Structure formats: structure tokens, C-alpha cells
Amino acid sequence: MNQHLNPVALPSEAQFAAIADFALGADLSIPDHALQHCSTLLIDTLGVAAGATVLEVGHIARDFAVDFHAAGSPENAASMLFDGRKVSLPGAAWALATQIDNLDGHDGYNKTKGHIGCAVVPALFAFAETQPDLTGLDALRTLAMSYEIAARAGLALHATVSDYHTSGAWNALGVAALGCRLKGASADQLRHAMGLAEYHGPRSQMMREIDNPTMLHDGSGMGALVGCSATLLAMRGFTGAPAITAEADEVAGYWSDLGQSWTVAENYIKPYPSCRWGHAALDALQQVMRDNPQVNQNSVASIEVRTFDEAARLFAGMPESTTQAQYSLQFVMAVMLKHGTVAPAHIAGAGLKDPEIATIIPKITAKAAQAHNARFPEGRWSDVEVVLTDGTRLQSEDTPASGGPDAWRPDADIEAKFHSFCEGRLSETRAKSIWAMRDAMLSPETRFSDLAKLVNPGCDA
């Protein structure tokens, strides 16, 4: 792995021109399967946003945006989703990306070891607020484009620096591209916006947050803030090019298939609100429980998880906060053993003080296995061995984390997850109306504002 990229004194005009043509071109063509999956990612992300409205970090972020990210004029303001208060456009995107990022149920892309939707979806709503005629299809095309830009920026960054940075370090470029397309930017303005987003993107240390979980999470709140600000600054003439993760010779290969290979269609949808690294072990344990009905919290003497290094480093004790719970392994495994699933209610409030869960955690150990290390990051696999109190040993198969290319989940599971996240936050009627927009967004008659109205307070749908 290279420690540094070479200086970009004379960036390749052709290399960036291809990016600009893709991001800004009037004939942006997205395959149907990618658009359909993008629509699902959009609605799934809104479900996570609704579920996260009651989190302490959500209240802090939204109130902070009101106090310190006020808009100077109505045309520069945007509504905070499921809140309704108006703040500056970057402030609205930051608050909601921070909120979504802290309920770890949002989509991700394995190869980047990170997340895109939690930054670009809030930015889409913020930029689109002043565009009532934006169609659902054009919004989806713009959103899909931003996923493609962000994914390649992430791959380029991971390949060319030694530290493992949070998603905000690179999804900011996807936000900038989204903003530039919706604002009608020129190719030169896009180039400076991407350069600004790269330069100011939070190159924060992911493993520090894994080892010491806090509300910082994956840096996507700052990625959204920086990406939106980069667009607006570039539109005013502020210079910041080039983004070397897009223009350097060393990264040309990561951009060569832009418009041909659709990474947006490979983004996974999480079934559980916890770090993706632990999901394979959860799925393996769940399958053991389905195959062996005698397995429950009372019959189990021990569980050994064999996984990859990063997952083995997840928080191992009884969490004191929702953040710790989401970056845990033993805790969520204990929840799975007791409840048969992991839901938002299990990682907050009374779920953090469940004495039965506390007694299960010491029975669970985790260690890295070379076979699973070899698959990471493209695959997240684990296996578990469950030992019962009568001495019976039950071994799972090697299991991939479900919800993505290794093991897609059916639509019914995704819809059930969406409603479980909205439960207690939105009326059943309103939640169903938002879910119905997943298909409606693909219709030429739908306006994006039809969806935006549903996520703002006061909706009676």
C-alpha cells in the first residue's frame, strides 16, 4: 500500500472530464436494476432516520443546527427531516447525517468498508427543497450518481493511504457531486467542489472509534457538511482543485469503469441496527437457533465466534450507551440468543440494562480466523460454535452477513425492517405511505417533493 500519492501538478484533463461528463451530463443513464435498488436504499435510509429521531445524539445535532447553523435567507434554508425546523442547507444535511449515522442500520458498500447513503440522502433532501419540479426519477438518477462517485473516492483513498479513515473522508465527494448536479454547476465548479470536499473531509481514524465508541461514529455527519459546503463555495468561485483521489494517475483504475459498473446495486441493506462487522456472526447464530429449537439463553453454556480481525475488536462488555451497543459483538450476540433478532429497542433504554443479557455476555468469546480475514473487506463472514449445558456441540456453517451480494434478503424482510424502525416514531399510515414511495419514485409522474412532504411533521398521510 502506498503511503502517499504523488503530487498532482498537471492533472489528467481526460480523467476528470470523464467524471464531470458522468456527474453533470444531461443524458445520465442508470440501468433499471440500479435505479430500483437505489430507490430501496433511499426509503430504507429514511426508515433509519425516523428511528433515530429520539436518540440523544439526534436531539443534540438538530438543536445545535438550529442554534449555530441558521440560514441567512429562505433560499439558503432547508428543513430537517422528521423535525421540520429550517436551518442552513449544510446544517440540515449535517444534522440528519449525524442522526442517521448514530443508528447503525443504514446501508453500506463492502469494498469501501463504509457507508454512503447516510450522507448523500440528507444532502439530496437539502438541495432539492428549492426544486419543487424535480422528478422522482431525476432525484434517483442524481442519488445513484453520488453513490458511484463516493464509492470510487473511498476505494481510491483506502488504496493510497496507510490509515483507515471513516466514511466522511470520502462520501463528502459524493455529496459534492450531488450538490453540483442539482445546482447546475459547470465542470470547473464540480472540480473545485470535489477538491474542497477531499481537502476538508474528515480523515478521522475509524479504529479509534471502534476501540472507543462515541457519537462520532463514522464521520458521515461531517462528510455531509463538508460536501454541501464545498458545492456552495465552488458555486461562488472558491477554488480547491484538484481532488487527488479522483485525478491522480495512481487512482485512474478506480474510475475507469464509471458509468459501466454500478456499485450502487451492490450496497447492502442492514437487517440489524449494529456494526456490519458483527452481522455474519448474528446470522450464523440465528440459523443455529432455527435449526435447533432447544437453543436458548438457558440452554447455552458457551458460544465461540470465529470471525475477522476487525470484528473481533468490537466492544466486548455490557454497553453503557447506544453507541457502545452498536459497536459491540458479544452484546448483540446475547440479544440474538435471547430475542431471536436485534431491533432498535434492544440497543437503547431498558435494553442496555437487561440483567439477563448481562449474564449471557461472559459466555461468548470471539477470535479471528484466517479464512474469514482472507474474505474481508469484500466479504464479511463468520462461523459460530454453540455448546449447550448438556455438552452438545452445534457448529454453524461459514456464514456471510445477510442483506448484500453474498446473501440478499427478500423484499418482505426489508419492508419489515423499515416498519420496525418507524414503529413508535411515525403513524402506521404515514410509514406505509413513505414505503409506497419506493415504487412511486420510479414513475415519471412522481415529484420528489411528494416524498419530501411525507417526511416533514404535520403530514396526515
TrEMBL record:
<dbReference type="InterPro" id="IPR036148">
    <property type="entry name" value="MmgE/PrpD_sf"/>
</dbReference>
<comment type="similarity">
    <text>Belongs to the PrpD family.</text>
</comment>
<feature type="domain" description="MmgE/PrpD C-terminal">
    <location>
        <begin position="272"/>
        <end position="438"/>
    </location>
</feature>
<dbReference type="InterPro" id="IPR042183">
    <property type="entry name" value="MmgE/PrpD_sf_1"/>
</dbReference>
<dbReference type="InterPro" id="IPR005656">
    <property type="entry name" value="MmgE_PrpD"/>
</dbReference>
<protein>
    <submittedName>
        <fullName>MmgE/PrpD family protein</fullName>
    </submittedName>
</protein>
<dbReference type="InterPro" id="IPR045337">
    <property type="entry name" value="MmgE_PrpD_C"/>
</dbReference>
<dbReference type="InterPro" id="IPR042188">
    <property type="entry name" value="MmgE/PrpD_sf_2"/>
</dbReference>
<dbReference type="Pfam" id="PF19305">
    <property type="entry name" value="MmgE_PrpD_C"/>
</dbReference>
<feature type="domain" description="MmgE/PrpD N-terminal">
    <location>
        <begin position="18"/>
        <end position="249"/>
    </location>
</feature>
<dbReference type="Pfam" id="PF03972">
    <property type="entry name" value="MmgE_PrpD_N"/>
</dbReference>
<dbReference type="InterPro" id="IPR045336">
    <property type="entry name" value="MmgE_PrpD_N"/>
</dbReference>
